[in-house]
Amino acid sequence: MILVGIRHLIGRISRDRRRFAANLVKRREMVTLVVATTTDPASIGPASALLAMPGWHPGPLVEDMPSFVNREVRLLKHDNSIVKEDHLDKRWEAATGEVVDEVIFLSKHTAISNRPALTVHPIGVPHLREDEVSPAGGKPGWAAPPNPRIGPWLRLLKTIAESHNLLPEFEVTLEATHHGPETNSPTMFVEIGSTEEYWKRQDAAQAIALLVWEGLGLGGGVAVGDWSRNNGENKVLLGLGGGHYVPRHMDIVLKYGIWVGHLISGYSLPMEDPGQSKAQGDIEGVGGTWKQAIKVAFETTSAAFPRGEVLAHLDNKSFKSWQKNAIVSFLAEQNIKIGKPGDFC
């Protein structure tokens, strides 16, 4: 009788373990990691506002970094530069066994203009040579897969900012792909700019917190920007050229409600002038790391949008004719389609 009882207990433990493992596998597919740093008021402000909303409870301590849990969302705090802590997604997985599906960083934005802004952007430094040092984190020649939420969240952020009377004081804008830290998961930065006065603004912090709350469906609504539920809308914009705030790419994103991949500005497409004798589409004669940047941006964008149709959109006015000719030829060589504004309808 005792032996039967022991066998029954062992069987129940085995079933519980299998059930736990099954639940863990299910949970691993859905974990979102939100990252904040205590050293940045534009990071910890929105994080604190988010944690003041219902449903949060303490999570595991990961390498002495505290975390908080709300449904399938994990918020992790650390005390270092937001662009220097590499591979937090993998470090979370190693510590908890949960696979990170996406990463969202909360951060400050700086600009020479000092203009107040709320920004969203992908990350990476795909244009840097291997022997160069990235001034703001990341690995030369690398870009993280862009978080598919970037486009939908830009539009949601604009709506939230308007409802909180932050417009037109704050500009709501995309930024080009830039800086680290290095990650492997689909990643985006959400930022408040551009001076300490605005980094500490509680209304701006509340707007960013609400963006994350609504965008991830923590309030019970449908999450915004879930690529797996895109209803067949499969065109993805890969922006090439233009300035840091990519206005011509953003016009299309706002007008047509499309998905957004990497946004590679002109300064991240270094092209060495081949001279007049090689200016007629001879891409081998055009030096610089521009081809590397385009290839990395396309490959990581494609990886972030399975079965998506990635179309390169060129800011034509930002290129000289020889630059445009070289880029168009390289895109054709790589079988990367070019999309005009009307193609994103």
Automatic annotation (TrEMBL):
Answer yes or no on keyword Zinc.
yes
SUPFAM superfamilies for this protein: AF0625-like
- Tell me, which GO biological process terms does this entry list? D-amino acid catabolic process
Alphabetically, the GO molecular function entries are: D-aminoacyl-tRNA deacylase activity; metal ion binding
Alphabetical keyword list: Hydrolase, Metal-binding, Zinc
Q: Which domain of life is it from?
A: Eukaryota
Q: Which PANTHER family match?
A: D-AMINOACYL-TRNA DEACYLASE (PTHR34667)
Designated name of the protein: D-aminoacyl-tRNA deacylase
